[in-house]
């Protein structure tokens, strides 16, 4: 058995998609970041609908976050079926009370690297969704919750994931939303990809690979020229 490896930043490796690209019995390791959507575009539905799924215990824990928000805002406790991840996501989307927007804010290492997004970017993206969805409510996950609490302290429709949540539970919580705002990095990229709604992504992040390979075509990018969603009356 032969083991081969290749180091990339996040570039697309087209030869991996060719028939017999990896010989029988060989092991091929692609190191670093799987962040080019071109690796996955053929398998989008399989990844989102079948491969990516929360365990029952995590789904129960994350569902409590949403139920607690409904109790706080509506003074009622909705009943959700937690048979599986996608069913719960569908039930949240069918609620007439709110449109859930997931927000990921990465700061811990990005501030020193000057990759962190500005407050202006975040508020610009937030205002876009509020104008588009008057019932928008935001689930925020971050490695700097103190910063986010201060930034969003006067907004009643913002809810941070609990300190007790693991990174995996944050990922599940954001993926259950309908649309996304992300700053930069691998974690934010995957939350947006798995959520599969409208996405606003900050271009300040130097992804390290070709922009056309990194940014999924339907995504909005700001600041700068932004592609409006097809058939949308809203532009940025």
TrEMBL record:
Pathway: Protein modification; protein glycosylation. GO terms for molecular function: galactoside 2-alpha-L-fucosyltransferase activity. It is a single-pass type II membrane protein. This is L-Fucosyltransferase. One of its GO terms (cellular component) is Golgi cisterna membrane. Pfam families: Glyco_transf_11. Keywords: Glycoprotein, Glycosyltransferase, Golgi apparatus, Signal-anchor, Transferase, Transmembrane. It is found in: Golgi apparatus, Golgi stack membrane. Its EC number is 2.4.1.-. Belongs to the glycosyltransferase 11 family. Signal peptide: none annotated. It comes from the Eukaryota. It is an enzyme of class 2 (transferase). One of its GO terms (biological process) is carbohydrate metabolic process. The keyword Glycoprotein applies. InterPro entries: Glyco_trans_11. The keyword tRNA-binding does not apply.
């Amino acid at each position: 058995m032969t083991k081969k490896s290749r180091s990339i930043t996040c570039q697309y490796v087209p030869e991996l998609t060719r028939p017999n690209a990896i010989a029988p019995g060989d092991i091929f390791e692609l190191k670093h970041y799987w962040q080019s959507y071109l690796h996955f575009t053929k398998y989008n539905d399989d990844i989102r609908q079948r491969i990516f799924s929360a365990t029952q215990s995590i789904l129960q824990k994350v569902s409590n976050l949403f139920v607690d928000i409904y109790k706080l805002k509506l003074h009622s406790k909705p009943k959700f079926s937690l048979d599986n991840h996608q069913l719960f996501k569908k039930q949240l989307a069918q609620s007439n009370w709110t449109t859930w927007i997931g927000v990921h804010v990465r700061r811990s290492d990005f501030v020193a690297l000057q990759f962190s997004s500005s407050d202006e970017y975040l508020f610009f993206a937030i205002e876009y969704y509020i104008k588009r969805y008057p019932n928008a409510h935001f689930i925020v996950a971050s490695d700097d919750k103190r910063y986010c609490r201060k930034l969003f302290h006067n907004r009643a429709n913002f809810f941070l994931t609990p300190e007790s949540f693991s990174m995996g539970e944050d990922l599940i919580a954001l993926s259950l939303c309908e649309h996304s705002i992300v700053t930069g990095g691998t974690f934010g990229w995957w939350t947006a990809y798995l959520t599969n709604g409208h996405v606003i992504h900050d271009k300040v992040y130097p992804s390290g690979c070709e922009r056309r390979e990194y940014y999924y075509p339907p995504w909005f990018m700001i600041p700068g020229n932004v592609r409006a969603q097809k058939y949308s009356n809203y532009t940025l």
